[in-house]
Amino acid sequence: MISVLYIDDQQDLLNIGKIFLEKSGEISADICSDPKKAFDHLTTRNYDAIISDYEMPEIDGITLLKNIRQRGCNTPFIIFTGKGREEVVIDALNSGADFYLQKGGDPKAQFIELIHKLKKAVDKQKTERALEKQISLIKRITEISTGLMNTPFLFIDKKIEDALEEIGTLCRSDRCYLMMWDDATKKTFSITHDWCKPGYKSAYEEIQNENLSDYYKIFFELDQNQYVLCDSVTRKKTEEPEFFGKIGDLNIQSILLVPIQIGEVTTGILGLDTLLQETSWIDEEINTLRIFGQVIINAIIRRKGDQKLVESEERYRNVVEQQAEFICRYRPDGTHIFVNNAYCMYFGIPSDEVIGKKFKPKMPKEDLKELCQYFSKLTPEYPDGTIEHQVIFPDGGIRWQQWSDHAVFDEHGTCVEYQSVGRDITDRKRIEINLAQSEELYRTVFESTGTAMMVLDEDTSIISANHEMERISGYSRSNIEHSMSWTSFVSPEDLKRMYEYHQNRRKGVSNIPSQYEFTFITRDNQRIRSFITVGMIPDTKQSIVSIIDISKLSDTEHALRESEEKFRKLAESLSLGVYIIQDEKFLYANPYIVSLLGYTLEELCSLPFFSFFLEEDIPTIKKTMEDRLTKKTSSVVYNVHAKTKRKTIILIEIQGSITFYQSKPAFIGIFKKLEEEHE
């Protein structure tokens, strides 16, 4: 219901206006005859809109509007007055009024127009606020992603929990949590991170030890990369008790479960739910939450890799820190002649168990084959060589070694001994492997964030660009990287400002914005309104940027309005009745139906749909509606008797089919009169 504060110094007009406004049941109006007391109302209650007269004693409507705006209140404001001078209209609109409506003429028509303007202003503000929230969510997720990439693994868990709290709060949830399968079989799951509002039981406490079989159908959908959304668990557990399983017993009002994929594999699930009141989440939020989930999962994967590396290094630290190079001499059959203390300490065996015996450390088959080929290539002419290979220790651990070998040959050219100096290079190898993995992880994040990303050099050239940058710009990666400047993609009106940011950021100026909007120019000169996030790469003059196309949000709204307007114009031009019915009430009726039944459009929409028909025909109507809802039939034509406002009866033909309006079933069709009216 829309809440309205109606201000006018004429009490009689206020009383009449309140009746008209509240007649449909969609509006709740508070009235105020003293504009000075309007601020008391605004202090004690939040309104969806304000209606005010212009000419009032002591303070006029425009002055009231200015005072309200100065207090930071952006509530839609409509001036409804008898004054219609052009300069007053201009002053009102320039002062922040959403609409200006002149009194006079038919009061009913006036208030119909007023209600129309009122709804339009409220819907416009709701759309703008939803857009602002979505942009704010995207901006914050981008910041969280950058922060996690720069966070040491020891602090990542705390960083993730802080991010869950922030995103959960932004998305109107009481709890926000991350679930991951325990192994590849996906038979059990664990809640790895969670957040809940103070005073509530956490998801970990409530769900952690639940049997996965109790939620089989839900997890099957999630594993197919299909999100699960229920805005009313109470209703859903009655409609589909088998699908929701035990969730209906967990005191949850609304729940959203979003599968998180890395590549083609569903790795985890991001969950949000409410415990006190029902809510819902729109597709745009869910798509953004998928990106957020990928950011969190990637951070967890990086933390696990870093943690394993640290634990492995800790395991061998004593050996690595104390060892010197290990030296040995041995015959071609493997019998050792000499080993030093470092050698014995490294392999963990006493020297008397090595000297005079054939000691060969265990190695992977591929390394052993390579080692045999290596020794066969040592000759009297080329007796020296160096090789790197792996060694398998008794506990199953694998270490890397580097050996410098010298083969000793007798006068006949036969090898009689090898003299070898070895060292452990496991740390170096792990760094190389970890670096390669980090580069792969960086590339995965770089390519899978869903935003256009580039790495920029000091001279404005583009060092690297991801696939989304190719798509949005129209250029291939080979055309972009090391060939183009980022200035080629910026509109002329934004270029000077952004170039100054680019230079000052590299000079260390601290007050340069890291996030802002600009107009992106594509290869075919298309202009795209975009949001950019910029961060410097530490210890370099390079920066990394992320670009999000935010133009489609407004384009979608515009296309929807155009589509609705086309439908309305077409319906109103027909010589047949066109209707839309939802929840047993008219949502829309064209002028033909209004004229045929004799009611105003407001009356049609406020009265129960079945009240316009004879009692004996109502079962027929209900049966046809039920058949369409259960998909027994897609469209139906039938004749019934309708009652007009003049108490006459007419035979009409109704044709209709099922549709959806605001995600709920509705009926759309036509009325056609078959017989003249009779008493």
Descriptive tags:
Beta-Lactamase; Rossmann fold; 22 helices; 25 strands; 5 domains; five-stranded antiparallel β-sheet; alpha+beta; five-stranded parallel β-sheet; 679 residues; 41% helix
Notes on the protein architecture:
- With about 675 residues, the protein is α+β, with helices and mostly antiparallel strands.
- The chain has five domains: about 1-130, 3-Layer(aba) Sandwich (Rossmann fold); about 150-310, GAF domain (Beta-Lactamase, 2-Layer Sandwich); about 325-430, PAS domain (Beta-Lactamase), CATH 3.30.450; about 450-550, PAS domain (Beta-Lactamase); about 575-675, 2-Layer Sandwich (Beta-Lactamase).
- The chain is built from 22 helices and 25 strands.
- Strands 2-1-3-4-5 form a five-stranded parallel beta sheet, with helices on both faces.
- α5 (about 105-150) packs antiparallel against α6 (about 155-170) and α5 (about 105-150) runs parallel beside α11 (about 285-315).
- The longest helix is centred in the first third of the chain and has 43 residues, at about 105-150.
- Mean pLDDT is about 85; it is low at about 315-320.
